[in-house]
Amino acid sequence: MSTLPLAVRDSTTMLRRNLLHARRYPSLTLNLLLTPIMMLLLFVYIFGDVMSAGIGGGNADRSDYIAYIVPGILMMTIGSTVIGAAVSVSTDMAEGVIARFRTMAIHRGSVIIGHVVGSVLQVLASLLLVAAVALAIGFRSTDATALEWLAAFALLALFALALTWIAVGMGLASPNAEAASNMAMPLILLPLISSAFIPADTMPGWFQPIAQYQPFTPAIETLRGLLLGTEIGNNGWIAITWCIALSALGYLWSTSLFNRDPK
Fold first, then answer.
1. What proportions of the chain, in percent to the nearest 5, are helix, strand and coil?
2. For this UniProt entry, which segments traverse the membrane (predicted)?
3. What is the spatial distance between Cα 198 and Cα 51, in angstroms, rounded to a whole number?
4. Where along the chain do its domains lie?
5. 8 Å CB contact between 187 and 166
6. Is the pLDDT of residue 80 over 50?
7. How far apart are CA 148 and CA 77, in angstroms?
């Protein structure tokens, strides 16, 4: 069998394995998914009026804040869900599963590809669930065209792929699942210091560059532009550049760690 069909066959097998693990042990994904849902409900129903007054120049309107916060929560969902990939990969390494795969006559890269594709599919399912909750509490995007919705979905999928590659590298670099979970915590914390909850230009002057020049803020602003019709500016190209750079970095890091000889 030639290399490409072998790679596709073995990657599909590894993907099926990871999806079965996710179905049999859904507690990790559920726990990670609850974080963005709880943040959404907390900020909308507890802080919604106050936050909307600050953004709207004194006019408290919770529906406006729902529209503002949902794109940030969707990005936060990606950051929290991909932690499961880091934990899953680290668990396979610690239990010796990957070491056994290395001795088998399978395509070498299929193990990582199975984890990456499986994680991206789980992220997309999580995004659909969070979006359903957002719609249930009043989020609407009436001005977005079908093309803009498709572009928004593509951006979310591309961002999920980029962060998954980073998470897989973290999992391979960690000695155990607990360390992998701790190493991946910045993927949850970065959205908190972005424009997800308040505009970056309302933050202290010394802190604004931190919020503006990180991966989540341009992606969130691009998503807002696509779904709500706000100004995108250069954020679209910056977001895509971040996705490509993180994907390349994660891929090179992950493959380097996976291919090195075990001690």
1. 80, 0, 20
2. 25-46, 66-90, 111-137, 149-168, 180-198, 236-254
3. 8
4. 3-259
5. yes
6. yes
7. 20
Rounded distance, CA 108 to CA 152, Å?
33
Residue 39: exposure state from Cβ atoms within 10 A (0-12, 13-18, ≥19): buried
Residue 128 banded pLDDT, cuts 50, 70, 90: very high
Enumerate residues 6+ apart whose C-beta is below 8 A from 136: none
Contact 73, 39 (CB under 8 A): yes
Cα–Cα–Cα angle for 87, 26, 22, rounded to 5 degrees: 65
∠ CA 39-177-131 to the nearest 5 degrees? 25
Distance CA 13, CA 86 (A): 20
pLDDT in tens, 222-236: 999 999 988 998 999
- What would the mean pLDDT of 84-99 be, rounded to a whole number? 81
pTM of the model: 0.88
Look at residues 51, 29, 55 and name the one whose alpha carbon lies nearest to residue 42. Answer: 51
The pLDDT score that the predictor gives to residue 59 is: 65
Tell me the residue type at 236.
G
Residue 105 CA from chain centroid, whole number: 32
pLDDT of residue 1: 47
> Helix 216-228 and helix 146-173: axis angle, to 10°?
160
- Give the span between the Cα atoms of 97 and 169, in whole angstroms: 17
